[in-house]
Design goal:
This protein is an alpha+beta fold. The protein is built from 7 helices and 15 strands. The protein is elongated and about 75 Å long.
């Protein structure tokens, strides 16, 4: 294997192994959770503000890992070695309901964000770069039902040249004075007709009256007509990270059993875009082999904390541990019984 391949793998290992909290579930970026008194207003409720589905929600389920030590003899660019280390990754029970306070953040939000990422990745092959757009409802339309509000949001987006994407509904905003207030809006991950590159690099970005026909020009002209305010929120690092962050404080409609926080429109709708769903396997970031279920019989506190904690309170959800402790092997692959 060439040195360039080893360095690339080392960088990937460093980014995914032995982190206290993975980047996709980094609590430092999150807006604070509201108190129960601010969790709902009218017909709408913040996700994670319902009842726990059952006693299994968020509890430890299985421990997956990779103990192919002959393939783990690598060193990162920082000098960290993985010789003699087992990579482990726990799994937890999840009801995958947006209302469940145990499962909405690390269960439902993760699943929906992965789905958004995969669908938009397929659509971007034909329609270009994915943009993150905020679509704010004017005060005059606050009285509309959710269905009418969403329908009008799609019309507003199309008038400005947003040809399709995913809509994530938010009924509340977080104020600098540390409280939530009712302010319905949509976050859109979608595609702009002709792209946004010209407007992004334009010198008159904040005073667009040139009539050039770009997105900002169309946005301003339509704002004078309908009062809906749209804004493209910079370039994203990752579609998945953006989607997960917006989902964790999105809103649902009370009394609707299967309310869809995420909906699709335009060229990314289910009718116009067919995407084949592939089964996602958990892969060891060190050797790139599939993870298999493991049993642990050691005393490492970082590993034992996984067994005793809920998903939300567990600080270290994946990482590395020694295969041998006090002269004995403590990690074993679980062998599934064969039936004849």
């Amino acid at each position: 294997m060439s040195n360039s391949h080893v360095d690339a793998r080392a960088r990937r290992v460093r980014s995914e192994v032995c982190k206290e909290v993975p980047r996709e579930v980094d609590d430092s970026d999150l807006e604070p959770l509201p108190e129960n008194s601010f969790g709902e207003y009218g017909d709408f409720q913040l996700v994670g503000h319902g009842k726990v589905t059952n006693g299994y929600c968020g509890k430890f389920r299985k421990l997956y890992g990779c103990s192919r030590l002959d393939l783990h003899n690598l060193r990162t660019l920082d000098g960290e070695r993985f010789k003699g280390k087992v990579y482990f990754k726990p799994t937890f029970y999840s009801c995958d309901k947006p209302s469940c306070p145990k499962c909405y953040r690390y269960g439902w939000s993760v699943r929906e964000a992965r789905s958004i990422e995969g669908r938009l990745a397929e659509a971007s092959k034909r329609f270009g770069q994915v943009e993150h757009i905020s679509c704010s409802v004017p005060h005059k339309d606050y009285g509309l039902s959710f269905e009418a509000m969403r329908k009008k949001a799609v019309e507003v987006l199309r008038a400005r040249g947003v040809v399709g994407g995913a809509l994530i509904f938010h009924a509340f905003r977080y104020d600098l004075h540390k409280y939530w207030y009712f302010s319905p809006h949509f976050h859109v991950l979608g595609f702009v007709l002709g792209g946004y590159g010209r407007c992004r690099n334009c010198e008159r970005k904040w005073n667009c009256l040139a009539g050039c026909g770009g997105f900002d020009d169309r946005n301003y002209q339509n704002f004078l007509k309908d009062g809906w305010h749209l804004k493209i929120l910079g370039e994203r690092e990752s579609v998945y990270h953006t989607a997960w962050y917006q989902l964790h404080h999105s809103s649902i409609k009370k009394g609707v059993r299967r309310f869809r926080v995420v909906s699709w429109f335009g060229v990314a709708s289910y009718r116009k875009l067919k995407v084949t769903v592939e089964y996602r396997k958990s892969i060891c970031p060190i050797c790139l082999h599939d993870l298999v279920e493991h049993l642990y019989f050691g005393n490492n506190p970082d590993v034992l904390a996984v067994f005793r904690s809920d998903r939300g309170s567990c600080g270290k959800r994946n990482g590395c541990a020694d295969l041998v402790e006090d002269g004995r092997v403590v990690w074993f692959e679980k062998v599934k019984p064969k039936y004849w």
